[in-house]
Design goal:
Blueprint lengths: L2 E6 L3 H7 L6 E5 L9 H14 L6 E5 L8 H8 L6 E5 L4 H17 L8 E5 L4 H5 L1 H5 L5 E5 L3 H7 L13 H17 L2 E4 L8 H14 L3 E4 L4 H9 L3 H18 L6 E3 L2 E3 L1 H13 L3
Parallel strand pairs: 1-2, 1-8, 2-3, 3-4, 4-5, 5-6, 6-7, 7-8
Antiparallel strand pairs: 9-10
Length: 289
């Protein structure tokens, strides 16, 4: 998943627009973008979107409310009959929260005739201080998890941070730590790490820099909050033809040398060995090549 785009639940105009966008996945939001007094009415609205519209190749996701609050369980119960691809789980505090969502899905899939385990999970794993401390255990808490992301706005509010970026727009220490831990925990668990949203929607140059930095860190994609952000995200997280050609050439060179029992050699003026092969294969897998 290169790009996952948030769509405010209940906003038909934005939803119609989202169905024309090149995002890899759409996240139909029942949490932060929906006023508290509209949440109950928005659930059947989102379920209707899922049941009655063709999403094309886009993933169909729902961001529920926190499972530990009064709304999360009903969010899942009222939308799963429309068979979303998965749920985005906000503000998990520990592995027990993740397991509670997974166990609820076990029961509801059986009730609605959905094959067990097909409804996936994406965690926003750093929105609470407790969640950041428990990110490793949460990421490994269920085989339903296919991706994790990180968030700084709620974490910053919980910690009382007065700012999260320096004057150059770079993340300060605590959000940078959360970002780094997201990548490490995701790779350790064998799931995709997705970078957080970029909130300055007019600054596409800044978005591009942040995407390029995220790619260099090991992220495989990024979430978006405005349609103009999606082409930039897709471009940065899609390997170029030249990068794919170079990766194929390197893999072929490794295969040729392996037949002679050689696993470290000079390739285009630099020494390469197993980690270089792993990176080349990851790039090809990311492109589906």
């Amino acid at each position: 998943m290169r790009s996952m785009h948030f769509v405010p639940g209940g906003n038909d105009r934005m939803f119609a627009k989202a169905l024309t966008l090149p995002a890899d996945g759409l996240i139909l939001d029942l949490e932060d973008s929906v006023p508290p007094d509209r949440k109950a009415a928005t659930r059947p609205h989102v379920a209707g979107w899922l049941a009655n519209h063709d999403f094309g190749p886009r993933g169909r996701w729902v961001r529920m409310n926190p499972i530990w609050g009064p709304l999360g369980r009903q969010d899942v119960e009222e939308t799963i009959p429309a068979r979303p691809d998965g749920y985005v789980v906000p503000k998990p505090r520990h592995a027990g929260d993740v397991r509670e969502v997974a166990q609820l899905l076990d029961k509801l899939e059986q009730r609605h005739g959905i094959p067990n385990g097909t409804t996936r999970l994406k965690l926003i794993a750093t929105e609470t201080p407790e969640g950041l401390l428990n990110i490793r255990e949460m990421t490994a808490a269920s085989p339903r998890i296919v991706a994790i992301s990180w968030g700084v706005e709620d974490l910053g509010a919980a910690l009382g941070l007065t700012r999260v970026r320096d004057d150059a727009g770079r993340y300060l220490d605590i959000p940078r730590y959360a970002r780094v831990m997201c990548v490490i925990a995701a790779v350790a668990a064998g799931v995709e790490p997705l970078d957080s949203v970029y909130t300055d929607i007019a600054d596409l140059d800044g978005l591009r820099r942040e995407c390029e930095e995220a790619l260099a860190m090991g992220f495989t994609g990024k979430t978006s909050i405005h349609p103009s952000q999606i082409p930039v995200i897709n471009e940065v997280f899609t390997p170029s033809a030249a990068e794919l050609a170079a990766a194929r050439e390197l893999v072929a060179a490794f295969e040729e040398h392996a037949r002679r029992g050689v696993y470290a050699f000079t390739f285009k003026g630099r020494m390469v060995d197993a980690p270089h092969l792993a990176n080349a294969r990851k790039l090809l897998a990311r492109a589906g090549a």
